[in-house]
Structure formats: C-alpha cells, structure tokens
Design a protein that fits this description.
9% strand; six-stranded parallel β-sheet; globular; alpha/beta; 426 residues; 16 helices; binds manganese (II) ion; TIM Barrel
C-alpha cells in the first residue's frame, strides 16, 4: 500500500484551520521570546530517524506473541510499510536492515523501491545472537568472544558479509550488538572474552570501507544474566578506540541499569567525538523496548538537550545514526512507530527552545534555580504545532495517527497480505 499526496491532503483539510491558529499563536509567542521559528521548523523537517526492519511486525515476549495481521513478510513489504510511515510523518526516511533476515534477492529492485519512497539505507545490523540454519558453528556460548577460534572466525565472516550487503545498497555503517556474556560466575574468563572480542572487532574493522563507520552497541544484561562482554559505554568506548577512528559507541536508551544518567553519557561521548549512533525506545524496568517518550519524557528531553548541545558545539563528533529500536506487543506496530517518531520530534523541538546563552550565563553565576527554570520553561512549551508545520512543509500529515486511522491503513494491509502473515526475523 502506498499513500499518495491526495489522501494526505484530504485528511489535512479538516484540521488545517485549527493547526494554523495554533501555529500562529505559538510562533508569535516564540518570536517575541527571540526564537527563529522557521529555523526550528526546518531543523525538525530535516531530522530523519531510521526504522529497523524488525520493528514492523508484532514483537513478543518469551511467553508469547500476538499478531496484528497484515504484517510484512518480505523486505519489499517492510520497505512499503516504512514508506507509509514516512508519507505520513515525513520523519522516517531511512531503513536499518538486519542480516540475514533481510538479504535482498534483487538489489536493483530494492534500491529502486526505497528511492521511490524517499527511503535511505542506514546502518546494517549483523546477527550473531542466534544460530542460522546449516551453520557450521554455534553461538550458544558466544560469537566474537567465543573461546573457539572457529566460532569467532564464522562470526567475523558474517559481519564482513553484512558489510558487503550494506555496501551494495548504499549503507555507510555496521552496527554490532553482541549477546555474548555468561549466565553464571566462573563460566567465562572476563579478560579472555574481552580480548577475543577486541581482536575479532579489529578483524571486522579491517574490512570496513573507508567511508564507513562501525557502531559498537552495549547492554548490561540479557540474554546473559551474569555478565555481558560489552556491558556499558566504557567497554564499548575501549573497544572502539582499540579499532580506530571509524569505530564509535552506540547508545541504546534501554541498555542501561536503572537510573543511569544517560544524558551525561551522550554528552561526554560527544566531547570525545565518539558517539556514533543512537537507538530510541523507553522503559520502566529494563530493556522494555516501549514507545519512545511513553514512560520518561523528561529524561528524553534532557538527553536531547545534550544531543543538541553536541550537534552545535562538537564538530569532532560525526553526524549520528538515529534509529528507533522498539518492540510492539500490544499496539499496532505502525501506530506505535508514529507515536515514537512524534515523541522524538517533540523532545528535539523542546531542546531547540533552550536558550543556550542564558543557560551558560546562569551556570557561570551558579544560579541553580535559573538553570532549572530555563530547562523546564522549554520543556513545558507545547511544541506540537511546530511538528505539524514541519510535516506539512514536506507534504506530510498534520496528525499522522488520525490520518493512519481514517485511511484504514491496517485494514488495507490485511486485504493485500492476508491475516496470518508474520514479519520475518521475529
Ligand atoms: Mn538497539
């Protein structure tokens, strides 16, 4: 299913007047406060977030999985779903593939389809957390860290294959997330596992094209519950530094122990020029992979404050690979992603409203109250009309969720694909 401009125009017509009123009132107020509203709106329009190929179907837990029907069952259909998201939100202009789930059978056709929907190929993800059919070696006890050289060699070769596939599509980054670790004390030698991982990553790094980067993701626990080889940003940064200039740390919001100060982590990584990628989601307890901004929107705003500061003040840090890494167990995956994209844009817009000069002055004066007032003044602003305007300017929907429902997208997808399709890789 593709959504054309006429569809979107029709759904916008009914609420256009209300949008215009709200936007003009907010724009007047912000202009009086000294903000450059059109600059903020154009920054929002330019901000694009990759959708991973595994987020388009119903997720599940180890207890079960409940379908939403009409799910995409191949790569073409996954890209079509992202096309729907992008048409409505104008924020989802990239896809992040997971290999081996998404190996194209026809590269030219896939590239053409993506280009027609204005979708780029973002970072490609390798998979060494499960065994593939007919694989010679098993990852049961780890991949890049494994005590067996043959297992490590298989995992290294897989990552090199993923680079090769991504290269043919125009990707520029490889994301490595390892499930490697141990479930019980004594199971692993921490030093050997870490050194094996470093050596394996260096072998992969050697196969990276010059204009590529390698993103090293970390996670404190799960699926291993005693230790994880790349447990935190410090371990990731050490490994990235051990590889070279093209290797970076990737921060996934859900991959921290409770109450970690994630805004401080992203801030210092940017100072060191080593923050390469960012995965959005939200959580209450662990790596819950919930809708972005659904649990801790203020924390998301504080993180965006640091990201905006970094984008404005840290030329030593590269442009970030942004991606939503969420799972949808009880919501329509596409509606969930629309909500996540909205929450990301909202936090970004609020962060752009922070008066950085006033904040700096208040910090120099040690005026703690003023610092908080500046941050919370921005946070409490209802910026949604700015998001609507950013979408409208690019031909998107004023209200993507309402448009999605009034166009009965899920119903159409079920009609096209049938009820019992299952998204590959889940
Ligand atoms: Mn992730």
């Amino acid at each position: 299913m593709t959504i054309n401009n006429e569809h979107i125009h029709d759904t916008n017509k009914k609420i256009h007047e209300e949008h215009a009123e709200n936007f003009n009132a907010l724009a007047n107020r912000l202009t009086k406060q000294g903000h450059d509203v059109s600059n903020i709106v154009s920054k929002l329009s330019e901000f694009q977030v990759a959708i991973p190929s595994w987020a388009l179907g119903a997720g599940g837990t180890r207890f079960g999985r409940f379908s939403f029907y009409g799910e995409p069952s191949n790569l073409e259909q996954k890209i079509e779903d992202i096309g729907v998201l992008h048409s409505l939100t104008q924020t989802a202009g990239a896809v992040s593939l997971h290999i081996p789930w998404d190996i194209p059978s026809d590269y030219a056709a896939i590239k053409e389809k993506a280009a027609a929907l204005d979708i780029k190929f973002d970072a490609v993800n390798s998979n060494t957390f499960q065994d593939q059919k007919d694989a010679a070696e098993t990852y049961k006890y780890g991949s890049l860290s494994n005590t067996s050289k043959a297992v490590r060699a298989q995992a290294i070769q897989h990552n090199l294959d993923v680079i090769n596939i991504g290269n043919k599509l125009g990707s520029k980054a490889l994301t490595v997330w390892l499930a490697d670790g141990s479930c019980f004390p004594g199971q692993n030698n921490f030093q050997t596992a870490f050194q094996n991982t470093q050596d394996s990553l260096i072998d992969i790094y050697k196969g990276l094209p010059d204009d590529w980067s390698m993103l090293v993701e970390y996670k404190p626990y799960e699926p291993n519950f005693y230790s994880t080889v790349i447990q935190d940003w410090g371990a990731s940064l050490m490994l990235a530094n051990g590889c070279g200039d093209k290797a970076y740390t990737l921060v996934d919001l859900g991959h921290h122990l409770p109450n970690s100060n994630i805004e401080q982590i992203v801030s210092i990584l940017q100072l060191k020029g080593k923050l390469g990628g960012f995965h959005f989601n939200d959580s209450k307890y662990g790596d819950d992979d919930l809708t972005v901004g659904s649990i801790k929107p203020y924390a998301l705003f504080l993180i965006f404050n640091e990201l905006v500061y970094g984008m404005q003040n840290n030329p030593q840090n590269p442009d970030l690979a942004w991606m939503i890494d969420a799972s949808h167990n009880v919501k329509d995956p596409l509606e969930d992603l629309i909500q996540s994209l909205e929450a990301i844009q909202e936090a970004y817009a609020k962060a752009l409203l922070i008066d950085q000069n006033a904040l700096k002055a208040a910090q120099l004066d040690n005026d703690v109250v003023k610092c908080q007032e500046i941050l919370q003044g921005a946070y409490r602003t209802d910026v949604r009309p700015l998001l609507e305007k950013a979408r409208l300017n690019r031909g998107g929907a004023i209200s993507p969720i309402d448009a999605y429902r009034s166009l009965d997208v899920r119903g159409q997808l079920i009609k096209e694909r049938g009820k019992n399709t299952i998204a590959t890789g889940l």
